[in-house]
Write a structure and sequence with these properties.
about 200 residues; alpha/beta; 8-stranded mixed beta sheet; two-stranded antiparallel sheet; 12 strands; globular
């Protein structure tokens, strides 16, 4: 995973490679983010003999990318957990207040019954991530985790202050934010790099 993080950081990585790497890293993170899901035992018949196997204990999953950069993580996760439902949250930053503003939120109707993974590749100031988690809670979500590729300590602190019960899964924690709110060393604007709009 750290090898792939190094590759996504490289400014010379092409859009195609960047997309593929973000998906691959998200897919690798699934093993950690689902580690504590409950399992139950079931009986199965192998071609040789009956045996006891393990299955998810009635848990249902939802992945909720924060638009637009979170979209880059969805397919990597769905390759491992293909039955997860997908919601979407759209936020933009008000240029005057710098606060996140909701412009779109569509979640599965049974969000309260699901383990919810909010996807946002970059946890910088934490404002958008905290707002996205609040939107999921307002619509009934209870068991929520945040999944990020790279985070700054400032963003981690803000999310933990607003939502102390939310687990945050991060592939790399960087040094700090610069004067423009970018993670240092970071990887630049994940959305622009994913969609070739830089």
């Amino acid at each position: 995973m750290q090898h792939k993080i190094g590759m996504v950081r490289d400014k010379n990585t092409s859009v195609k490679e960047f997309r593929e790497l973000v998906q691959e890293i998200a897919g690798l993170m699934v093993y950690e983010i689902t580690r504590n899901l409950s399992l139950s035992e079931i009986q199965v018949e192998t071609p040789v003999a009956p045996t006891t196997a393990r299955t998810l204990a009635g848990k249902k999953l939802a992945v909720v990318p924060v638009l637009r950069a979170g979209l880059g993580m969805v397919d990597g996760i769905l390759q491992i957990v293909p039955n997860a439902k997908v919601g979407h949250i759209g936020l933009y930053r008000n240029p005057e207040t710098l606060e996140p503003v909701e412009y779109y939120c569509k979640l599965p109707q049974d969000i309260g019954e699901r383990d919810v993974f909010v996807l946002d590749p970059m946890l910088a100031t934490g404002g958008s991530a905290a707002a996205a988690i609040s939107l999921v809670k307002e619509r009934g979500g209870q068991k929520i985790s945040l999944v990020c590729l790279i985070a700054a300590p400032e963003g981690i602190k803000k999310v933990h202050a607003a939502h102390p019960e939310v687990d945050i899964f991060i592939a790399a924690v960087d040094s700090h934010l610069n004067d423009h709110g970018y993670i240092v060393p970071g990887l630049g604007d994940a959305g622009d790099r994913l969609f070739g709009t830089k």
